[in-house]
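ok here's the first one, seq then struct tokens
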Amino acid sequence: MKKLLYYSITAIITVGLAAFTAITVPTEAAAGELGPTVVVASPMVKMDGKATISILGCGFTPGQEINLLFADVNGIPTNIGDDLKPEPKVNERGAWYATWSCGRWVSRGLIEEGAYVFTVTDSDYSPLAQAGVAFYEAKEEKKK
């Protein structure tokens, strides 16, 4: 019985070590091969006239011209570059940052409660990366 237990433990350790050695840690070169990434720093946005979203990206080609598209409630993608502050410019490290005040879109009914997608494109409008954002209705607080 003890031999069976020892063989089982040895087999588990051997399989574990084999699996562990198969895991590769991405190097800096490999990480660059993953492609551009976009992050919405405020992924849950309360729908009101002051709604603001912070968006940032990395892994882009330094100096690359990019466009940021947002598809409204009707699914129509619109270049929101003129509404971004500051205008997104890819720096020498391949990163950029912008803020979008989208309260006007909310008040005009172009954004309703639900999930939406930002698409970052190159200058020819070929998609490079996407990120999601969710909008939720502001709940009225009860007064006591």
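and now the second one, same deal
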Amino acid sequence: MALITRLSRLMRADLHAVLDRVEEPEVLLRQALREMQEELARDQQRQRLLGREREQLDARAAELEKALGRSDQELDVCFAAEKDDLARALVKRKLETQELQRRLESRRRELDAGLEQLEQRLDENRSRLEDMQQKAELLSEPDLEQASSASWAQADTGVRAAEVEVAFLREKQRRARS
């Protein structure tokens, strides 16, 4: 049994080594950057949607405020005309409007909290993305340096035969004098 375990461990290790060689770090880094940019775009889209919903809530709250003002005026008319039944219906509608107003205010607070958290996350993600992009640029620069140093190393450093002969004769003379 121990032999099978050791063989399976060896096969996995070899497989992981092959995968490590196949994977290109630059490609993985670019993919990670793309994923971060996509996540940032999704968060920005969500922020816009929440902003629109907030605007709609504000507009609806303004409509409800106007409706409450009209209800008060209508109630004044009903009480002046001593129409209690009609006033009861208006009071019911006013209470329903006030309850809806409280729900809208609660939803507005939730949206504000969600927007604040989303903005913080967006700021953090933007800074992380910028850091990653800068690191990616720095990592790609050594490739350029390696390429330029490799070109120096591969440059033709050949010495002509005549230069070799002259240097040889000088060395021979120097050694003969000493």
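notes on #2: The radius of gyration is 39 Å. The chain has a mean pLDDT of 83.
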